[in-house]
């Protein structure tokens, strides 16, 4: 009975804070933290500090010096806020990235307006993931006010650069020990993977740039040169006829969503051959040259059942086969980044606590999913060596990076109740 009484007390407090949840989400959306290049990171960290410090959270602003993109114009700032309980115990950490992607076209709402229309708050980052950040803050504040004698600690972080790899955010903090298992025991990342879904992890990724070489010559006499674009075309043809069908046959037992991602995939991220694109407004004509270089960036997503060395070998096998068949073919390959798949066990403490809360709040069992793309769990797992980590938060995944992105207030409130009940379970009742 005490368990339900605790839940009822917290839910009553969270319902009372609905307007604060809306206002907080709107404030966060109105800080344009576009990445690239990485704007207003310190501003949003200072906003979070000014909110949390008066509530007895010890706040650290941490710049990720010398990480990709960090410079005096666009410094990579992060915040870690920690509220200690009345006695020793475990720490539950809520981690949200503060950066947002470019706006794109076709918005019908102000992307930085935070407009409330019915149950929806619109704006870039509303879904991915300032709504999740706001929900976790409201959940944590309501929890510490309702149960001031809780054990352990509650942490909230706002981190940079998740949209571009997380190296100036969670990776940097993990390297500095902020996610060491002796310091933090449970991590919830409020990414928008579905209100009833616990995201256990993500597929792996291997990014690489492939360059084919040629020889420049006058375009009217291409036989005197060697066209690098044609060489790259042969690579693309080999990928289309052999590699892509082979990838489609690789299946996983990981519960990846959407179902189309339950296989190995590869995206051609970019392709460039020949002369550089002219500057905007240039009205001249291109010069007649045979291109001596073509470059392609690939984004290969792989499964937990695959080995990273085999993933790389599949690409080099394609290139070597083309080389054996084409006179003058030469290539270079450069790794851009690698991300190893990760998946938390279903019986991990943070998973079972959140699953119980989902059943209580939503009246149905939790779904278990895996993300098709990666997020900052990779750094918490691989660098921090902390396995007890999930993604759970409000929002519809398909709205991420879309025009007229929104988050539903009702979903944020429900997710705050689920996060709050997880805190009760981990820091009040199991600690008793």
From TrEMBL:
Cofactor: Zn(2+); Co(2+)
Keywords: Cobalt, Hydrolase, Metal-binding, Zinc
Molecular function terms, GO-annotated: hydrolase activity; metal ion binding
Keyword presence, Hydrolase: yes
InterPro entries: ArgE/DapE, Bact_exopeptidase_dim_dom, Peptidase_M20, Peptidase_M20_dimer, Peptidase_M20A
Pfam families per record: M20_dimer, Peptidase_M20
Keyword Zinc-finger tagged: no
Domain Peptidase M20 dimerisation positions: 201-325
UniProt cross-references to NCBIfam families, sorted A to Z: DapE-ArgE (TIGR01910), PRK13013.1 (NF009558)
Entry similarity comment: Belongs to the peptidase M20A family.
PANTHER family (UniProt xref): ACETYLORNITHINE DEACETYLASE (PTHR43808), ARGE_DAPE-RELATED DEACYLASE (PTHR43808:SF32)
Name assigned to this protein: Succinyl-diaminopimelate desuccinylase
């Amino acid at each position: 009975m005490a368990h339900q009484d605790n839940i009822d007390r917290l839910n009553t407090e969270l319902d009372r804070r609905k307007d604060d949840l809306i206002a907080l989400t709107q404030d966060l959306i109105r800080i344009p933290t576009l990445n690239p290049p990485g704007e207003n990171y310190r501003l949003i960290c200072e906003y979070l500090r000014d909110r949390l410090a008066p509530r007895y959270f010890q706040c650290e602003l941490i710049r990720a010096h010398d990480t990709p993109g960090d410079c005096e114009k666009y410094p990579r700032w992060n915040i870690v806020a920690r509220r200690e309980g009345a006695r020793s115990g475990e720490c539950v950490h809520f981690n949200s990235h503060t950066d947002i992607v470019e706006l794109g076209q076709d918005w019908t709402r102000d992307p930085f307006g935070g407009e409330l229309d019915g149950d929806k708050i619109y704006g870039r980052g509303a879904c991915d993931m300032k709504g999740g950040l706001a929900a976790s803050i409201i959940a944590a504040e309501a929890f510490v006010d309702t149960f001031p004698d809780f054990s352990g600690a509650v942490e909230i972080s706002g981190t940079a650069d998740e949209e571009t790899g997380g190296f100036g955010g969670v990776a940097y903090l993990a390297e500095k020990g902020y996610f060491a298992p002796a310091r933090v025991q449970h991590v919830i990342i409020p990414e928008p993977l579905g209100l009833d879904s616990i995201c256990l992890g993500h597929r792996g990724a291997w990014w690489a740039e492939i360059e084919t070489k040629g020889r420049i010559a006058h375009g009217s006499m291409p036989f005197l040169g060697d066209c690098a674009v044609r060489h790259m075309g042969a690579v693309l043809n080999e990928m289309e006829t052999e590699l892509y069908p082979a990838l489609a046959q690789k299946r996983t037992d990981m519960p990846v969503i959407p179902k189309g991602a339950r296989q190995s995939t590869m995206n051609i991220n970019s392709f460039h051959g020949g002369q550089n694109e002219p500057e905007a407004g240039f009205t001249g004509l291109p010069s007649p040259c045979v291109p001596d270089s073509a470059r392609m960036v690939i984004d290969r997503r792989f499964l937990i059942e695959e080995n990273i060395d085999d993933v790389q070998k599949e690409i080099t096998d394609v290139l070597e086969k083309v080389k054996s068949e084409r006179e003058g073919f030469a290539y270079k390959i450069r790794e851009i980044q690698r991300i190893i798949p990760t998946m938390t066990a279903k019986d991990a403490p943070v998973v079972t606590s959140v699953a119980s809360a989902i059943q209580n709040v939503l009246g149905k069992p939790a779904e278990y999913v895996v993300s098709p793309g990666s997020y900052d769990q990779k750094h918490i797992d691989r660098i921090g060596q902390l396995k007890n980590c999930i993604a759970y938060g409000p929002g519809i995944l398909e709205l991420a990076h879309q025009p007229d992105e929104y988050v539903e207030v009702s979903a944020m409130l429900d997710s705050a109740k689920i996060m709050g009940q997880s805190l009760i379970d981990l820091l009040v009742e199991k600690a008793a």
